[in-house]
Amino acid sequence: MNRADTTSGPERAGDAAAAEGAAPGMSTGVPAGLLDGVRQWLAESGAEPTPARVAQALREQGRVLGDAEILVAAERLRSELVGSGPLQPLLADPSVTDVLVSAPDRVWVDRGGGLRLTAVSFPDAAAVRRLAQRLAAVAGRRLDDARPWVDARLPDGTRLHAVLPPVAVGCTCLSLRVVRPRAFTLAELVAAGTVPPGGDRVLRALLKARLSFLVSGGTGSGKTTLLSALLGLVGPGERIVLAEDSAELRPNHPHVVRLESRPANQEGAGRVTLEDLVRQALRMRPDRLVVGEVRGPEVVHLLAALNTGHEGGCGTVHANAAADVPARLEALGTAAGLDRAALHSQLAAALSVVLHLVRDRAGRRRIAEVHVLQRDASGLVRTVPALRWGAEAFAYERGWERLRALLRSEDAERGVR
């Protein structure tokens, strides 16, 4: 979730190109072949791409350039060898959430208003492949013909996903999800339109009542952003333990313990799963147990924990609608060996609320609906709509009375008036 973006796509694309200067596919005053020679010399010597080293590399090739050309070459090589190449200005933009590369001249960016094509380009498909492999190496992962895809987190928190040809047809496909170091506040989410006016009272009451909840939605709908903001409302005396596949949650809270899963090494050993993390988190005296994304066998341990005194636990889950969440959890529980009846029994006692986020065609993210969980006559858990999005405030649905009883807060009721 980002601040409102009112600038049109072509204007922003032009801004990105201007901020970057000359992209690798454009003229820099330095021949591409000459830069290849400098690049090779630096790699063989292990030298940093400083202006002095670039000048030395040029002299080794019998070429002499002016100071301005040397500075351009040094900056470009430093960006390629140390930074994120031509993508660096886009990733440095505080409004950017995603940078996607599907071809050398097809670099897309999302600033919270949907994908926009930028003027940034690479000289060729090989340059995209080199950048993807270098970023994978920075993340400590292998990316080559034998292992043609990678899903990892860079040291600055950016989520990296890359797929090499021939699995990715034509060109390496590179996806970067930017994780900002500071979480949005609930007030900022209200101002941005993610939370309707007054809806923050309902969310504050949800945290205060220590209800267990899930944030559902599709990819890029703002689940992590909303959950980070909500965790910042937890009392400072409570201990929050996070278990995540990729450490993306950034709650503004004084007592957070963060656990992150780990893939197996090249010998196939050392793997740490999200299920392992949830089991370990339960031994760390959490006041709030948080699973960044529930998508596997860890659902069994999470539900068990929420049924054994760990109130206020939460997490995110992919779902098309709030009503689909029980079926989604049922599928995950069944795959983990938990039968349907047992899963729904634990679900009924463990979770109370589902906050569902959507992203409209204009790219705006918002809480579309709030559901409460309720067991029907057959013993299966269903969700009941309690609140739905409204431009002026949340609107009542038939499950509001039940939600109000759970919240036990007059402030929450004022939040939908």
Give a verbal description of the structure:
By secondary structure, the chain is an alpha/beta fold. It has 2 domains: 9-177, Beta-Lactamase, CATH 3.30.450; 186-414, 3-Layer(aba) Sandwich (Rossmann fold). 35% of the residues lie in helices and 19% in strands. It is built from 15 helices and 15 strands. The strands form 2 sheets. Strands 9-8-10-11-7-12-13-14-15 form a 9-stranded mixed sheet, sandwiched between helices. The longest helix has 15 residues, at 67-81. The protein is elongated. The two termini are 25 Å apart. Mean pLDDT is 83; it is low at 1-29.
Question: Helix fraction?
Answer: 25-40%
Q: Biggest β-sheet: count, sense, barrel? A: 9 strands, mixed
Shape: elongated
CATH superfamily of the largest domain: P-loop containing nucleotide triphosphate hydrolases
**Number of beta-strand segments:** 15
Instruction: Estimate the mean pLDDT confidence.
Output: 83
> What percentage of the residues does DSSP assign to strands (E)?
15-25%
Question: How far apart lie the N and C ends?
Answer: 25 Å
The helix/strand class is alpha/beta
> What is the CATH class designation of the largest domain?
Alpha Beta
CATH topology of the largest domain: Rossmann fold
Per CATH, the architecture of the largest domain is 3-Layer(aba) Sandwich
Radius of gyration from CA coordinates: 24 Å
Element-by-element helix/strand order: HHHHHEEEHEEEHHEHEEHEHEHHEEEEHH
Number of helices: 15
Write out the strand line-up for the largest beta sheet, numbering strands in chain order.
9-8-10-11-7-12-13-14-15
Overall domain count: 2
Low-confidence stretches: 1-29
